[in-house]
Each structure stands twice: as C-alpha cells, then as structure tokens.
Amino acid sequence: MSDERIRILKMVEDRKITAEEGAKLLAALDSPAPDLNGRAHWLKVRVFERGSDKPKVRVTVPLSILKIAGRLGGKFHMMMPEEAKAQMEAKGIVLDAESFEDIERLFEQFAVNGQYKMVDVEDDESGQRVEVYVE
Description:
Helix content is 47%, strand content 21%. The protein has 5 helices and 4 strands. It starts with a helix and ends with a strand.
C-alpha cells in the first residue's frame, strides 16, 4: 500500500476527515487525469545540481489531489489551536475555506495553457536549481 493511501486512511482513522472525504482522495489517487485539450494535470517540482540537466529530486503531484486537499483545507483550519491561527494571521497567513478556494482558482488558471512554470530559482552558492511548474 502506498504512503499516500496510508496517510489518507490515517486521517480518516484520526477523524481529521470524514470517510466520504477519504474515499474521494483515494479515488483521485486511482483515476488518471482526463486529457482536457492541453490542460495541465500535474504540479511538478524538480531539483537540479549545478551544471546537470538530470533532476536530483522529482516530485509530481496530481492537481486533482491538490484541489481536493484545498477543499478540505478549510476544515483543517477549524482544528488548529487558536494561538496558532492568531500567529499565522498576524503574519498575513489565513488558512480558511475562502483562501483554499482562491488557491483552487489559481490552479485552474495555471492549468489552462498546458505547462506553466511557477518558480525557477537558482542558489548562487550551491548552484542548485529548483523548478516548480504545472503540466
């Protein structure tokens, strides 16, 4: 059983999400993203060593999982300690249902053109480069 499945089942067991929400997450893991006329389906993170074109680290996450997690995010906000919420809000970080809806809309906008590079950062000292994009 994959780590993702175990994490989802643990969240259901710990009552952090409902069984129905867990079932939706598990179903999203099983179903391939449909081809929607060049729309992006994946969030990809790649880390490269200096001078290398081959990634040292590759992370690929289905956008559908991120969208579902975004919908569940507002529920996680309700479980956060009030002190943690206050500290985050003091720094301009608000994790409520509305902010997660904004994130979902952002992914929808990124996904329209097939591939969109969100971040491309290079560390001058180490030479490592990190790319984050949707595809």
